[in-house]
Design brief:
It contains ten helices and 13 strands. With 332 residues, it is an alpha+beta fold. The strands form two sheets. Strands 4-6-13-7-12-11-10-9-8 form a nine-stranded mixed β-sheet, with helices on both faces.
Length: 332
């Protein structure tokens, strides 16, 4: 790759990422995470250590079709970027730059790194690009926006509530643990998100399973201690549900995104004709109380930015974005 000069600065040289760049890249990632934790201290402090940061980068390099670039100035590593491919059946021809997949001494440097890395990706037909960016780093977010990326998804955390916190749902609602008699209602509630996602302004098609298959899966998981189910009942009818678990069960909330010892609000839904009585908020607050009582200091969740109901609900119960998933589709 050709060297380049930027704004009269000493020449920036961009070359393929090799194992010899790991220590320099790890120092950059550890520094980025240190600054990130100054804004969001609930994140895992261990990634401030270069050795842990290096392990996270090595994990990125081991993923399918991983490739990347590194930037040097006067021989010193000042930036890197690594992308890999996820399931093409879910994402089409794609590249993902995960939370540990990029860092630089200057935010705008990611433009040069992406320019060098993305050409071969697009030449291979992989034109669906994603990147995970610290939500609090306005300069870095702006740099990616300047590359025609837009926000698609949010990862968020909050501390669990104090011991004095109690869930007081509206008088017409009952929040309880479900029984097996509730499985048909739970199966219908699992269809709320895939039916909602293709609509405006989300426009995200999600495969819809037959309700019988969903009910069979719920039946298999119902007694699994890894999952905790809650339902919201209104006038004797189940209108909402939520599922809570340990954050380690979530494959999309790993590495730098995952706080140590965190609970996870994995799913919540309210039937369209059951909205307006406070069921979503009551279920969210119930999961917060569950996380506290289960001994978690932190709880996490994530949602599509364009899912306006989810965005209002989870911000409304105190979740703070930690990482923004940005997306660009290259059409040519």
């Amino acid at each position: 790759m050709a060297p380049m000069t930027t704004q009269g600065r000493t020449r920036l040289e961009i070359e393929p990422f090799t194992p010899q760049a790991l220590d320099g890249a790890a120092a950059l990632l550890a520094d980025r995470h240190r600054r990130h934790r100054a804004a969001e201290p609930l994140l895992d402090p261990s990634f401030e250590e270069p050795a842990r940061a290096r392990a996270a980068i090595e994990a990125e390099l081991a993923l399918d079709k991983a490739s990347g670039v590194v930037a040097r100035r006067d021989g010193e590593i000042v930036g890197y970027l690594i992308g890999h491919e996820k399931s093409t059946s879910s994402w089409g021809p794609n590249v993902w730059v995960e939370a540990a997949g990029h860092a630089a001494t200057e935010p705008l440097m990611v433009r040069e790194l992406y320019a060098a890395a993305a050409g071969p990706w697009v030449d291979e037909g992989r034109n669906n690009h994603h990147v995970l960016v610290p939500a609090s780093d306005a300069g870095l977010v702006a740099a990616w926006f300047g590359l025609d990326f837009g926000q698609q998804h949010l990862h968020a955390v909050r501390a669990v509530p104090a011991a004095s916190f109690g869930v007081v749902p509206p008088s017409e609602l009952v929040i309880r643990r479900p029984t097996r008699e509730d499985l048909p209602a739970l199966a219908e509630l699992e269809l709320v998100l895939p039916r909602h996602s293709p609509l405006s302004p989300v426009f995200s098609p999600v495969p819809i399973q037959p309700v019988e298959e969903i009910q069979a899966q719920l039946d298999a998981d119902f007694d699994d201690p890894k999952y905790t189910f809650f339902v919201a009942e209104h006038e004797g009818r189940v209108i909402g549900s939520a599922i809570a678990c340990d954050l380690t069960i979530s494959g999309s909330n790993g590495s730098l995104i995952r706080p140590p010892k965190a609970g996870f609000l994995g799913y919540a839904a309210v039937l369209p004709d059951g909205r307006g009585v406070g069921a979503g908020r009551a279920l969210g607050e119930t999961v917060l109380a569950w996380a506290r009582d289960a001994g978690y200091p932190v709880i996490a969740t994530d949602w599509r930015s364009t899912n306006l109901e989810a965005d209002r609900s989870w911000r409304g119960v105190g979740f703070r974005p930690t990482f923004r998933r940005l997306h660009r589709f290259v059409a040519r």
